[in-house]
From TrEMBL:
Record-linked InterPro entries: PurE_ClassI, PurE_dom, PurE_prokaryotes
Entry coiled-coil feature ranges: none
Presence of keyword Isomerase: yes
Alphabetized GO MF terms: 5-(carboxyamino)imidazole ribonucleotide mutase activity; phosphoribosylaminoimidazole carboxylase activity
Protein name listed in UniProt: N5-carboxyaminoimidazole ribonucleotide mutase
Keywords: Isomerase, Lyase, Purine biosynthesis
Reaction catalysis annotation: 5-carboxyamino-1-(5-phospho-D-ribosyl)imidazole + H(+) = 5-amino-1-(5-phospho-D-ribosyl)imidazole-4-carboxylate
Enzyme Commission no: 5.4.99.18
Organism of this sequence: Acetobacter suratthaniensis
Gene3D superfamilies: 3.40.50.1970
PANTHER family referenced in this protein's UniProt entry, alphabetically: PHOSPHORIBOSYLAMINOIMIDAZOLE CARBOXYLASE, PHOSPHORIBOSYLAMINOIMIDAZOLE CARBOXYLASE CATALYTIC SUBUNIT
Pfam families documented for this protein: AIRC (PF00731)
The organism's place on the tree of life at top rank: Bacteria
SMART domains the record matches: AIRC
Amino acid sequence: MGSQSDWETMRHADAILNELGVAHEVNIVSAHRTPDRLAEYARTAADRGLHVIIAGAGGAAHLPGMCAAWTRLPVLGVPVESRALKGMDSLLSIVQMPGGVPVGTLAIGAPGAKNAALLAISILAVQDAPLAARLEAWRAVQTASVPNTPMTELP
Ligand SMILES: Nc1c(C(=O)O)ncn1[C@@H]1O[C@H](COP(=O)(O)O)[C@@H](O)[C@H]1O
């Protein structure tokens, strides 16, 4: 994530990865404020054994795109909701990559962070049968938790 302030959003990705038992690391890396740290992080990611990168940033969110520029690993971008423009700036910065350097872009805010983790798990599960089984079980629980009819009584 681009800043400590993104943790409130990105913790939703961390929670899903923990829940499904996926080894991961969490770092603050900024294309703007720590450009050398970003280059080092993304250039060495594949050799360090990482398989997918989730990059969350807000405002002029260059982090996911710059990350993708430095690595061949799949990069999933989470637009963090900005105060001034409600995350529209983050979304458009992340989604409008030029052809040739893709970033898989998720929804703004916590749902996007949650889905980034689930999408990363789907990617990893292609080659990891036990993880695929855990993901299917997680989704079955989600499905079972959705009622057929709404509660109409006010609490
Ligand atoms: N978009 C970026 C990048 C980047 O793209 O490299 N680095 C920090 N930021 C974003 O700035 C916002 C405000 O950060 P602060 O709260 O630290 O001022 C955060 O959402 C962060 O992701």
